[in-house]
Amino acid sequence: MIDLYYWPTPNGHKITLFLEEAGLDYRIVPVDISAGDQFKPDFLAIAPNNRMPAIVDHAPTDRGGPISVFESGAILLYLAEKTGRFIPSDLRGRTSVTQWLFWQMGGLGPMAGQNHHFSQYAPEKIPYAIERYVKETNRLYGVLNRRLGANAEIGAAYVAGADYSIADMAIYPWIVPHQRQGQDLADFPHLKHWFEAVAARPATVAAYARGEPYSSRPAVTEEGKKILFGQTARRAG
Fold this sequence. Notes:
Helix content is about 55%, strand content about 10%. By secondary structure, it is α+β, with helices and mostly antiparallel strands.
């Protein structure tokens, strides 16, 4: 039913988390980002920003032709609306989920991504840049920890409230590499408790297992750095 254009990165894992939780039929189409698969014309037609993940839904709810969706947050919203799951229907619940989804998309993901880049991949180690993004990642962990702590006081176990949602699915994969981000979960007890609970969900285990066949190739190789970093409009298009 759904083709998932995927590589086992945090953004890729978001979508397998949803698909496994919802029990939807899907086929993985690997997009080896270190080999430049994301710049192939067939993929560009689906994902014009040259970034995975993307999906093609061959059975959309309007019963029309296939629909392609790119950007992980948009995909999560699309799938939640398609299935009627993992996002509340009431105004306040939906608002809570969407604001934490966008917090991940606009904050945690980009800042942790820059953290990874400057600490792991940059050819020159720039202390200011590393410190800047490690500290900002730490601040965002603190925001999340406080939110989860406040929720725990009212008996709500998840980021947006009592129920597991696409907000949790968006955030969790970006916490998985916390050690690489220079963070210690022991400093964030509410976040740590939530993280361990999400990690233990059967669908989480299954989602990460789906990525294992593609994990033997490093996400970023030396040759891949030339492809991934420093793209311009001319080179990408």
